[in-house]
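To whoever picks this up:

The parser on our side crashed when reading a file containing two proteins. I've narrowed it down to the boundary between the first structure block and the second sequence. Both blocks are reproduced below exactly, byte for byte. First block:
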Amino acid sequence: MLKQFITSALFAVGLSASAQGVYQFKDPGFENWKSTNEPGNGWNSFESAENNGIGSLFNTGKNASPKPTQETAAPHSGSKSLKIYSNTPFVGKKANGNITTGVIMMGSPNPVSDYNGERKNHNKTMRSKDGGYMLFDGTPDKISFYAKFKSGGSQNGSGRFILHGDVDYRDPDKQSNGEYFPDMKENLIGEATILVPATTDWTYFESDFTYYQSKPTKQYLLASLTTNPNPGESSGDDLYVDDIQFIYYHGLSSLSYNNVKLAGFSEDKLNYDLSTEEYDETKVAYEIHGRGASAEKVYNKKTGVLTINVKGNDYAANESSITTYTIQFKHEIAKETVYKNSLLVDAHDLGGIQFTPSSPISVLHYESNNCYDLLLKDFSFGGMSVGDILVEELTPSTSVDGTLTLTAKDKSTSVTLYGEPTMLPITVDAQISKAGNMTATITIDLGEGMTVDVTYAPQLTISPSTSLEVSNATGLTNVVMNRTFAAGWNTYCMPFDYNLSSLDAEAKAQEFVSSNGSSLTFNEVADGVLKANVPYLVYFPTETTVGTTEAPRYFVTNVASYQPTSVEHSGFTFVGNYEASKSMQGLYGVASEGDVQKIMLGTAGSTLPATCAYFTTKNLNANGLRICFDGGEVTGINQVNGAQAQSAGAVYNLQGIKVSNRGTNNLPAGLYIMQGKKVIVK
């Protein structure tokens, strides 16, 4: 069966000039009229007829000639249809019902004698008159409409459709001797005629176009609907017409490979299996069914599928005018490697941040052509399910250390948004190490400045109660951070660069810059950017919690290493700590005594959480050490108190008499016993 694809979408395609071209009537169902007796939308009646030599009788004849009517009773579709009829405007003279896309020329009150003579009565493309012509871009295969006809003497109602070149074409186009009028034959491109016999019910009619030459640069349509093919031969005829459509085929009439017709071929069969054959473009042959239709071949070397898209001549104005055939050839099965990392989706405009602790991404590798695809399965963001995202034909490159990089820039990819398939540009930058670990960034461009940023990387959880393992993989990392900072001064050390202001706008940071043996000097980090693995003193005006179990704090960053940095000046060292519950015995840290913060020496039972920092010193008499910020004394941290941290043990003199339960504070200079050891107070 021939592919005709007459769809309701065609009814919406206008016959007004546009960038898409003109392929259908603007109002094929005659639903909207220009005036009572004038259909408009490209159609003209006796209402707009021109005088072709009838003289003073013109106005009388024009007014008396049968005008079309818009019928509302039982149309074929919609709410209205067209009716044309014949009558007797002059005594004994009969006039056909007639509408045309050109202009009705009235030249004789006697159509019958005119028919046998000069034929002054005719329809004509009048290029000089506004609305007197119809430009047409299509090369249709058929014309069709629904009609019913009541005869008052005519054998048939008639519809004639003439495609012609850049001349004022006429219908009838032949003289009484059968010869064409001048300029007619050489400008006739194609034509189709439908004869409508008597019928009381709506009946479908169609006719093939016959073509005589190729479509010119400028083409016109001269269409005529009449109650009688021969002017003036009957009256009392009624012709009803509805739903006029031009039909454009888009199919294949033959398809073969290596000179052999494909098994089971028919125009309506769309899929074929040649999976035992190697694809060779030169061996594919086909014939297109459709005047003016075109076909294009697309071969997917990964899947082995040849796609042949056949587009009808009207495809520019009707995207449904296409038929797709596929042929499966022998193909390589891709090697699929599945990677599992954490997935961080940042789409603030569409639902905020979404974190998936473990999510698979597949890389499909076609070894024969070194082609890579990236498949993100069951993707969603902001509560919206997208499904599988396949980004095809990424660009591969391999570094000297064996890292495979796969990239794609604004690759047009099909995604599903709000239940509808949508093509969006997607950017991919993925690295696969020689050991087989993957990190990737994927950006989905939604337009209007909105993006969905996807980070696919190892998950790093940073918590004071969890040690950061040096053995953890480095590189692009999805970081989940949880920590509570005390009001006042805290030590701080992180394995990646970070702007402190994003935690608290009023937070301040100080870095250790020098020491003179009796004081430690810190300077403010002016830009607020804390360097990876470097220890700092940070100040928060109030207690601040960053991240909770219910609402974790996410970061996306490149973690270069997990090795804290030691900062040393004049025998004093500031050291970052990534160990949970690190023993502080013999080490100095920031602690609170009542409402006063001090740098105090730890005891055997004291510990330091991860992501904090501590001090060490070679100065055995650290008591009285001052902390200075920006050249001045610190506010909020008192002097170092080396003995205070030992207050848990009693202090005895050399005679064994207990002299203090609070360590060596405020004791006079001398030698004492504390925790079984001699202690000198200077």
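<<boundary where parser fails>>
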Amino acid sequence: MSLVITSNKTGENGNDSLATGINLPYQYHNYLSQPLKIAPNSEVAVQSVKVVKDGTVALHRANNQFYLYTGDNSSYVKDANDNQVMDFSTTAPVIGWVNSDKIQTLNIDNLAVKIQRAMAVSVADPMFLQATAFNGCNTNASGIEVSVNRATSGASQGAFEGYDIKFNLGVSASNVNSVNASSSFDFLDVGGFETTINGDDFGGTYTKATGVLAQTDAGEDVVCKIGNLPMSRAAGKFSVSFKEAGGDSTGARGGDLTEFGWSIGLSRYMSVNEAGEADFNSINPQYFTSGDVPYFDYVVRSDYDDTDQKFYLRVFHTICDLTDDEEIVFTEFEYWTTGPSSGSLSGPIEIFDDSASYSASKISKLEYTVTNEQVKLEVLSDNGTNASYVLANGLQTTKTHNLKPINLNTYCLYPRIDMSKGTEDDTADPPKFTISTYNGIEITQEGIDAGYANQMFAFDSVAASPGDDLRNTYDWYARQEGYGLTNGGSQSQQIDTRYMYDYTNTTGGPLANGSYVQRGLTTNSVSQTVKLILNQDIYYTPSSGANAEELLGFANNPIPDPITATSLLQTYTSSSVPTMISKASMFIRVDNLSSESYNAQTTQPSKILYHIPRFDASGQENGALYFEPNERTYIALNNPNDLIINDFDVSIVNPDETLADNLTGKTIDCLHFRKARV
């Protein structure tokens, strides 16, 4: 008689179930340093078996919906009772689903992948997503990570204990200007839409090596291009020289643009359909009421003044309409009266028609810098630094002295440039801009559709359901637009028209005086709070239908606190073990023995030796399980002669003899060999 103990090899934490090779908990290979001799006419049985079994989780509409709130969670956005007030915030909870409406059963590891993807989409902020450093800005090596948490010691080593959910924030690695020569960044035509100011096509080219955006079809078309990567909010910069863009005092270049020659700005997503056709209302928020003016969230324009026949630098942003606080409208930011440099300026800065008119003492370049909610706008000389003005910086104590703060609609801002037609005489020397710096986010997060173009959708009634490809997108506003939710009364409108965007509001906010303090950076990061909302809450709104408490391992803990909370990382760890089911039985098979059984389900001979019950003696069906049959079932080895065994190939299989890959941690299988009793 011989007793042989077989086992897979695991590391100290017992988490080698994800490894490959010969030491998996459901398939392993043991070698013997000395051969085992089995006497003729022997038989074998399983004496005992220990496994660590993961169950499966059934996903359905009743357990997989949650919300993520990212934004300010300080006292400034709370009432006197420390309750969150959404109207005091620039953002709102974003809905997420771990899976579609369809019922689906998954093992633990596959579910972790689903959860990670769902969190990455629902965070709706590219600063949280894994991304490469683009032009020295916004490094986020890890992004959003969801991993399986398992017991690391004891009899339950390797047993499933829940999930670790990590939200890593991107940082500004460097704010040093860099030539925009990366192949990752390009300008896209936002074309095909018909308005009174834009034709069918857009004539212009962008040369990556030099950063030059030039008109190529002078006198015929308007250049209208938008950058393909969202701007980093960790001090991301967008720098553009307009010295060679021209002006034309006759208005020839500006006449078809309501007499402004060019526009350089930052804009939220603008959609067109697959045919490249869209009208004004379909590419702008439906609550935007500035007529046929091209939409920007922030824009610097070369505006023609009929009175003195000169072009001037004018700044605009979209904020609440002074006459209707439910609408947004282009509103001029009069930087010469309210901005940080207002004391040095008596009026708007003049823009000249040709490059020869500029010098080190003349403004010829502008630079946007976004630091969390703050938008800084600086103008300077392209020939040096003798002339420079900070027109806005988001730091002024008076709300109206700042450009509007960034919000959930504008977490993804893209550079946009419009250029006037020019004239036929410009063919030899077309108007052009030179982009010297753009700090964008090149997203690499697994399961996320990166790039501006991949935010475009053709929606129908089927596509607008939870779990479809739409939810691979990171741009929340693009997703809202795809759903048709940028109309009046939408969540987008509610955010865009809160008190901090109403420059006439003197009673709103936590101080009841209309003031708002724009948030900047902490440790070179936007330092966003992340709140998991797993059940409906009366303060974090919207949160209707949230029901993912048990699925994620937070039973009776609908808004858990993170176990790690820094400016760069927030970690949530399950406080309870998610409920699992385990319906399938398992079987032990030793593939290199001469024994023979028969599996009627597969209609084939088999090497199965033992049926592992679904439940152990305590009624447990998941985790660490131990089985020892009261009466062993011996299987003949069919060996008329001595049998020499050097190794054991052990597999744990399902009834169809596929590998039982829901096992983890340490597996121990004890085999008993004896002489057959005739």
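After patching the parser it read the second block fine. The chain is about 5% helix and 35% strand. The CA atoms of residues 525 and 562 lie 18 Å apart.
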